């Protein structure tokens, strides 16, 4: 705050406090010639009379004490522009102290799970309840409360993983985030074969999810024509068989549970406009131990058999 604004605030506060004190003094005193309290001349129904009696002295003094308290409060705490107050109190220092106290409580709660294996965490009901709670607070907004995702947000309960479904890979995703980028190829394909080339490439991508791709290509002219575009533009990321590359986050195009709807229009949109999926990093928010707990919970959603086996070994 600039000095000019600081003095403006100080003057405004002083004016308000002084105005309140003056108004209290002015309205509380009686003056020569004022009518008696019972002589207001306001009478209804013959015997209902309005009085104008002053407040009791103890009440008036209570108001004055309130004003004195307000002045003392503004001296003790910062409330007068840039004046920091004699106590040295700041909201930032108060926030830091509260945060440190709660961080210690969190450390006591979660510290027992530090560096435990994912299998051990997944087999511990209390750890999984904590992981589920962390997921509900930080992940459910995108992936849903059931972790089954939505268009553009992966289903975490199946066996399809764009960046790998091993526990350490999931932990890296939680802590450091991911960015999956599908570049727009519409202008490239349209330059080669017009809009029909986009449709042919999309038809081939859709055909990759069929049970017999060779039979589909023999019977579907559009898909067969689209294969050459896929081979020239898409194999670098998705591979010659369309099974993707987890190192790049390139999805497996042969599975039916896809990140975006498995419709021709949706695939065309992906090819023409591209996609940019972002999983934000949570390292600063959660820390290593809480990140490990939620990663173990996510891993357990698609590895029920593994968690049961781990539980039986304990």
UniProtKB/TrEMBL annotation:
The annotation note on the cofactor reads: Binds 2 heme C groups per subunit.
Q: Which PROSITE patterns match?
A: CYTC
Q: Would the keyword Nuclease be found if you checked this record's keyword annotation?
A: no
In this chain the Cytochrome c domain maps to: 126-209, 221-302
Q: What's the cofactor?
A: heme c
Q: How does it assemble?
A: Component of the cbb3-type cytochrome c oxidase.
UniProt record similarity statement:
Belongs to the CcoP / FixP family.
What does this chain do? Answer: C-type cytochrome. Part of the cbb3-type cytochrome c oxidase complex.
For this entry, the protein name equals Cbb3-type cytochrome c oxidase subunit
Species of origin reads Luteimonas composti
């Amino acid at each position: 705050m600039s000095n000019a604004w600081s003095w403006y605030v100080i003057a405004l506060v002083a004016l308000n406090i002084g105005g309140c004190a003056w108004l209290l003094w002015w309205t509380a005193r009686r003056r020569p010639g004022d009518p008696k309290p019972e002589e207001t001349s306001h009478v209804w129904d013959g015997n209902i009379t309005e009085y104008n009696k002053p407040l009791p002295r103890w009440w008036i003094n209570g108001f004055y004490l309130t004003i004195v308290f307000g002045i003392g409060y503004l001296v003790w705490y910062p409330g007068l522009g840039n004046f920091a107050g004699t106590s040295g109190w700041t909201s930032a220092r108060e926030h830091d102290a509260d945060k440190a106290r709660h961080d210690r409580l969190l450390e006591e709660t979660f510290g027992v799970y530090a560096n435990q294996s994912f299998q051990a965490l997944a087999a511990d009901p209390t750890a999984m309840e904590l992981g589920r709670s962390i997921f509900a607070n930080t992940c459910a907004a995108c992936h849903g409360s059931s972790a089954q995702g939505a268009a553009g947000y992966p289903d975490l309960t199946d066996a399809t993983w764009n960046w790998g479904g091993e526990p350490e890979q999931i932990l890296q995703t939680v802590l450091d985030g991911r960015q999956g980028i599908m570049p727009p190829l519409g202008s490239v394909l349209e330059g080669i074969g017009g809009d029909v080339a986009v449709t042919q490439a999309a038809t081939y991508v859709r055909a990759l999810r069929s049970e017999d791709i060779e039979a589909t290509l023999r019977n579907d002219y559009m898909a067969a024509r689209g294969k050459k575009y896929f081979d020239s533009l898409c194999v670098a990321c998705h591979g010659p068989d369309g099974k993707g590359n987890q190192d790049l986050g390139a999805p497996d195009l042969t599975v039916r549970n896809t990140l975006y709807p498995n419709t021709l229009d949706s695939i065309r949109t992906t090819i023409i406009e591209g996609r940019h999926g972002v999983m934000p990093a949570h390292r600063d928010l959660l820390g290593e131990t809480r990140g490990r707990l939620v990663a173990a919970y996510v891993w357990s959603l698609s590895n029920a058999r593994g968690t049961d086996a781990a539980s039986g070994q304990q």
